[in-house]
Design a protein that fits this description.
single chain; 229 residues; alpha+beta; Glutaredoxin; four-stranded mixed beta sheet; 52% helix
């Protein structure tokens, strides 16, 4: 029998359960679920109140981070519990047969850029945002901010060069690589208000791609999933 945390009961026990908050990492999965038209229940995990450290949540996600996904009807008829957005996005793509190519080379192109996001773009942009927006007055010098600013700018260069040659990050089709990356690029000029500092307008291929992705109706709906009021 599937297990559901009593603190966050499902409205429909046959649906996918998403436990998240509308940060860039959380938005990825909400966008994917909307793009794939999957039915799901969304449970807001308020990390500001340390809900991710609740014992019930840690049974879902041992690392105590958001988001987490539970599919009570996994491919083997058993409940699937997943943390880590890369794993979740690949699972949803494989479950539906969408947003991830089936031919070997095209599939690996998307997967490598998905890993590029989870290993580099997310961690570096997140650290840049932390020191740029939240910790300016909490450090004695600018070393950390400069370090993450330079690395974020380098990663934007990598993305811009990729998008000069391809319509989407993974190739010629919209994929989970775009879904994973767009919220993290979007937050730079949005919530972090760092567009001028990072000179985002100079990355013309990123700007073209980001506009295309963020204009998608599923992106607009998915980015609001598990948002605070």
């Amino acid at each position: 029998m599937p297990w559901f945390p009593p603190r966050w009961p499902p409205s429909d026990s046959d649906r996918i359960q998403l436990y998240s908050l509308a940060t860039p990492n959380g938005q990825k999965v909400g966008i994917a679920l909307e793009e794939l038209s999957l039915k799901y229940d969304a449970h807001l995990i308020d990390i500001g109140n340390d809900e991710q450290s609740d014992d019930e949540y840690l049974k879902l996600s041992p690392n105590g981070k958001i988001p987490t996904l539970s599919d009570p009807n996994g491919p083997d008829g058993e409940q699937v519990l997943l943390m880590e957005t890369g794993a979740i996005l690949m699972y949803l793509a494989d479950k539906t047969g969408r947003l991830l190519p089936t031919t070997t080379n095209a599939r690996q192109q998307v997967i490598q850029w998905l890993f590029f996001q989870v290993a580099h773009v997310g961690p570096m942009f997140g650290q840049f945002g932390h020191f740029f927006k939240f910790a300016r007055d909490k450090t004695k010098d600018s070393y950390a901010l400069n370090r993450y600013l330079l690395e974020s700018h380098r990663l934007l260069d990598v993305l811009d060069e990729r998008l000069e040659e391809h319509e989407y990050i993974g190739g010629d089709s919209y994929s989970i690589a775009d879904i994973a990356t767009a919220p993290w690029v979007d937050v730079l000029g949005g919530f972090y208000a760092a567009g001028e500092t990072l000179k985002l307008d100079e990355f013309e291929h990123i700007q073209r791609w980001l506009q295309t992705v963020t204009d998608r109706p599923a992106y607009q709906r998915g980015r609001k999933v598990c948002a605070r009021d």
